[in-house]
Design goal:
By secondary structure, this protein is an alpha+beta fold. Helices cover 40% and strands 14% of the residues. The strands form three sheets. It has a five-stranded mixed sheet. A two-stranded antiparallel ribbon has the order 1-2. A two-stranded antiparallel sheet has the order 7-8. The radius of gyration is 23 Å and the shape is globular.
Length: 369
């Protein structure tokens, strides 16, 4: 009898915890693959792709971007098999999303991640990544911000369109996309059930199994793992002339000298993206991060109490503005010519500005109470 359909995450997690056997040369839409399954489990492999929840596919892509550009170990973003049940890995409290003014004078999104390094007695390695990189599949920020938006993790923003309308901040300052307080301890990479994300951290074992399978599908006979990605990232950093201190920080090693432990910045200055793609090194996205711990908050309009902010959604002006923004968004999605889109984009930007003004006015009233 065929068991109930499960997601890929459940499939591999259960396979790790129970006795399993290998089923080789299974066929998925013409692709020959190898899978590990529980003993006695019957699986319709022609429908296997349906079991790979869309969230898992996006999560895996985001994870590969982070591993490539930060040289992290698998157990630093996912829950390690050696720390099973600890809930340790990449949590929302150790990932920061910011907007900065780039070299072109444009607003650009950057992300800082902190690695949960096992046995690391010093301040753990931090890595800053950015979105201005081509081709599109090499952009590490896009899948990360998609996951955060899907989780409704941002305190003040609900859509990419709202974030896109944020103007470039002043040079060397950052616009911080703050995370909701109740999301800070939530894992970024979560186990996914048939009902969606569970809030439980994804295990390194099941992710590693999928990585091996992808390597086989790509034609590699050997088992490809995150170690191979890490090794390639470190070799490229060495080839691109980074100093010993920079490479030690990038690698997350803890056997460094006094300079590394006491004077080198906590944030790795290795540009993992440029290093991997042999492009010119960028540092502009890193300049504001050193002061991020000071919680500089230039825009007080983000500080409205949640109840007050929720009440604004029912104001007539807000309802009218949101409705017009929604209509303009639908219109823009159907426009293929850039020149034709400009009037609608300008109007939408004006509406977002008006929303910020209304919030600012409400904040002024609240501060006088």
């Amino acid at each position: 009898m065929v068991k109930n359909k499960r997601t890929a995450a459940q499939f591999f997690n259960n396979a790790e915890l129970n006795g399993h056997k290998s089923l080789n040369n299974a066929d998925i839409d013409g692709d020959t693959v190898s899978k590990h399954i529980e003993s006695g489990t019957e699986v319709n492999y022609n429908r296997m792709l349906v079991l790979w929840d869309e969230r898992i596919l996006v999560q895996d892509h985001a994870a590969y971007m982070l591993f490539i550009y930060s040289s992290a170990r698998v157990g630093e973003y996912f829950e390690s098999n050696m720390r099973r049940g600890s809930g340790r890995g990449l949590l929302y409290e150790i990932i920061d999303f910011v907007i900065f003014r780039n070299e072109k004078g444009e607003a650009e999104i950057s992300v800082r991640v902190i690695r949960d390094v096992k046995g690391f007695s010093e301040i753990p390695p931090q890595h800053g990544i950015y979105e201005d990189i081509e081709p599109l599949f090499a952009n590490p920020v896009l899948p990360l911000i998609v996951i955060a938006l899907a989780d409704h993790a941002f305190q003040d923003y609900r859509s990419f369109e709202e974030i896109e309308e944020i103007p470039p901040p002043a040079d060397r300052s950052l616009h911080h996309l703050r995370i909701k307080k109740d999301m800070l301890r939530v894992p970024f990479f979560q186990i996914v059930s048939a009902d969606g994300p569970t809030g439980k951290i994804h295990g390194a074992g099941s992710f590693s199994n999928r990585t091996v399978d992808l390597g086989h599908r790509a034609g590699y006979e050997e088992n490809i793992g995150i170690y191979n990605i890490r090794r390639e990232a470190l070799i490229k950093a060495d080839d691109n002339g980074y100093s010993i201190a920079e490479r030690i920080k990038f690698a997350g090693h803890n056997n460094a000298d006094t300079f590394f432990g006491s004077y080198a910045p906590e944030l790795s200055t290795v540009d993992g993206i440029a290093s991997y793609w042999n492009k010119k090194r960028r540092t502009v996205h890193l300049e504001g991060f050193r002061g991020l711990s000071l919680h500089h908050h230039p825009q007080l309009l983000q500080s409205l109490p949640a109840k007050v902010e929720a009440n604004l959604d029912n104001y007539a002006d807000f309802v009218s503005i949101n409705k017009e923004i929604e209509i303009l968004g639908e219109k823009l999605r159907g426009i293929m010519v850039e020149d034709e889109a400009q009037p609608a984009q300008a109007r939408r930007e004006e509406l977002y500005w008006r929303k910020r003004q209304l919030v600012s006015e409400e904040l002024s009233k609240w501060q006088q109470i």
